[in-house]
Amino acid sequence: MNTKLSGAQLVLVEIKHMGRNYLPLVEYMRGRMVKFIDFCPTTYLPGIAGQSGVSDTDDMYLTIMNEYGNTELHRSMPLVRFDYTATIGVRQPVCAKISMQTSFIDCQNANNVGKVVALMFYYDLPEYSSRNTTDAVMTDAISIPLTTAIRYNQLPDTDRLTGKRFRRILLGTPSVTPDLQTGLNYSQLQNCFITLRKGTYNVVENMPVILLYQMEMLEKSEWANIIFDFQNSYITIGGAGTIPNVEDNYIGKSIFFNLQYEAK
């Protein structure tokens, strides 16, 4: 199986009650081949105030239905099997076109009722990716300054990276970035999300940046030469401005990435 990633979408599942809680319909994922799913244990969610994310996977089960909604492809999988903090990038393959709205999370943990499960879906997106023409890569670096807790923090428009095809996006956790900006610590980064856009299409939408901290899973998270526009892409801080002391702990600091792209 080709494990390279091309499209990714964060899906938020409200746990309204015990038992079955169905996933929302995500229209532009209809008919797409889903490769993997990551469970993301995060408290503060993108664009949502006053509703907490689920961090405890005990007694939570995911059932994934086929694209017609009449066959259980993966039945009652413990949610912990999708938890990137537990699997260290050894992802459970899905490898199917699925029906989102008939797939569900079975909640048997009363402490999670009223919370939201954050799932990162990785799916084939050939329109914005390509095969390798060489094995060689080059590496660059960017720092993304955080200026707002409730709006978009745009990626820098970097001419030298325009038109590149990216294979890895690697989160760093420096206390001081190479351009002498103060960085965020690991705990703070757990509440930050990145969206990468090409034109008006979200190639990667609301990915927790911590999923890109790949010190132990570099070969597990290789992108298929994806393309995106820096001027249309951005970072958001979860919680819609409700994180305690967000101005002191986030604003005025930067998030640091290394970017590896196909060499020409």
Number of domains: 2
Separation, N- and C-terminal Cα atoms: 26 Å
How would you characterize the largest beta sheet?
11 strands, mixed
Radius of gyration: 18 Å
Query: Which sequence of SSEs, written as H and E, runs from N to C?
Result: EEEEEHEEEEEHEEEHE
Give the integer mean of the pLDDT values. 92
Secondary-structure content class: mainly beta
Report the total helices: 3
Residue fraction in strands = 35-45%
Shape: globular
Helix content: under 10%
Number of strands: 14
Q: Give unreliable regions as ranges.
A: none
Explained architecture:
With about 260 residues, the protein is mainly beta. It folds into two domains: about 5-125, Jelly Rolls (Sandwich), CATH 2.60.120; about 135-260. Helices cover about 5% and strands about 40% of the residues. The protein is built from three helices and 14 strands. It has helices at about 85, 185-190, 245-250, and strands spanning about 5-15, 20, 35-40, 60-65, 70-80, 95-105, 115-125, 135-145, 155, 165-170, 190-200, 200-210, 230-235, 255-260. Strands 1, 2, 3, 4, 5, 6, 7, 9, 11, 12 and 13 form an eleven-stranded mixed β-sheet that branches. A hairpin with a 5-residue loop joins strand 4 and strand 5 (about 70-80). The longest helix is centred in the N-terminal third of the chain and has 4 residues, at about 85. The chain starts with 6 loop residues before the first strand and ends with a strand.
